[in-house]
């Protein structure tokens, strides 16, 4: 084989990163204590990061920094300051979720390579083209994809100079990454801000199928799928685990390094994966890759499975046998800890020692001698020093200019001025030139990129002076609602379509007032069928929660609005979509609060929307929630499940809170909060900002809640927009179980 297969390892702290390097990782992804989606990891200081980059590069290992959270408007200056620092560190790439960072990097930091995080839920061809258009150099494909889907997307990515990476080991989320709000809704800790509380691992009341942990998946392992991933063209094999310790990281990376090397050298695989069971695991599955979504993907225990596996492997049944097996495993675990600790102790991320000596005599050049870790560089001025009492180059003047080198990279000794004569000068412009040459050497013999100051953004006028109402429906039977309102009517399209079936297309054709509303997840044939609707109907306008459909609309010249599940939280995200893909408007995220909304700047001729009434989606999954709850006779999910299944149930956590598990025809299994989102405060606060306020009348996610009189709801919402405050109380009386907690707490 000639193609490089990158092994990408997690690094939650310095020791874990060292362990990954010594175990043979080709690249490492790690985070600082800000802007990263694993805030429970120890994470790095900026000084640590600089040292890690130096150490990793000595081992020909790349370093990628995770900036994989949504960014708030007030954080843009801090983010810009960080990007100004990163461009001169030698970082090999940044991993990004927020679309606004693409705009910033493309305009102001083009030397940085952007990797699209798994949080961007990349699962169809249009999304690959979308990411290529906005500047991604790599895409982390959704964990839910099978090998055929991965192969198709990777080929397209390569055609557009985008690399692909796939998770091959570690924890699996039951929900589509980037489309999970369970932690945000239930405890106010958003997964989109790195604070996931892992509600999917929680204990629930025992379900009808007999499970206490009905959402808990086994860990991912593609150990025996390496040949298929190589054949699919995948560029990077990614290990999950930034909250895992050094012993875990070393064990998994070392095992995978041996597997990859064996396959490259011999074309064969190692059969022994026993080392992977000696560190934390929840047992293993490769069902997503195989496209075989069975009940065996679940395990009714979220804790470490290694001891259970050891008992089973050794057929330990009696108390004595179990004690012996468990002690042997504990000894093995302790041995791993000690061995890894000894290995990482030899690796150093300390700052380099730097000495600067300044010299100059009459009629000689001004000279700076640089000594870095015993390497010496000499920089001289072009002109020679001349006598001057009034404008002499003093040690204080030099120290002032050169103090910036006392930074994250270097331990700087006291400046040496012993060879610099008094009362001499050179033009201060030349002194600056000398400083820049010194900076060049201290930057690894690369030009230093100057810091960027962002220009202030202008907030442009609204398109509509008075905000209007819009509604979402999903059933043609609700078409009569158009008779009682002038509101825009969005028609929710399903996540799955029967191949070459024209049902949805014909509904839209019969109802020209309906504006197509595309869901967040569209995989394989379902994306193709959604595109066919666009191509055959050519609607004037759409709303899409899927960036792949956004790209297709852009390509066709169709006006498109970014839906609420694109989770837009800042002005630069709006600019990315408008400037790169001609987006006409966007919903602002329902996860952010009034203070986080108020400073968002509207682009010119751009519509801004906000949802004030909707069911609160907690998670959507490609797996089946019913196998572990009410039970299902089918051993695995079939193609027809999406189109035919219409089950619904509830699950109740140990705190007694129930959640609706809802499976609409043509939809993925989803879980909704027990409360509806209802937010009149946003109308009071932001009628001068939003052009349109939106209400969801689909009944999806309502579970056993009482169905509302939709005609009356529309009337009361419109009355409220017209200034009737009593209408809010009327609606609140109708919608008895509601909340706007996310609007209060924000991110």
UniProtKB/TrEMBL annotation:
InterPro entries for this protein: Peptidase_U32, RNA/ubiquinone_mod_enzymes
Cited Pfam families: Peptidase_U32
Source superkingdom: Bacteria
PANTHER family xrefs: 23S RRNA 5-HYDROXYCYTIDINE C2501 SYNTHASE, PEPTIDASE U32 FAMILY
Identification of the protein by name: Peptidase U32 family protein
Species per Swiss-Prot/TrEMBL record: Psychromonas arctica
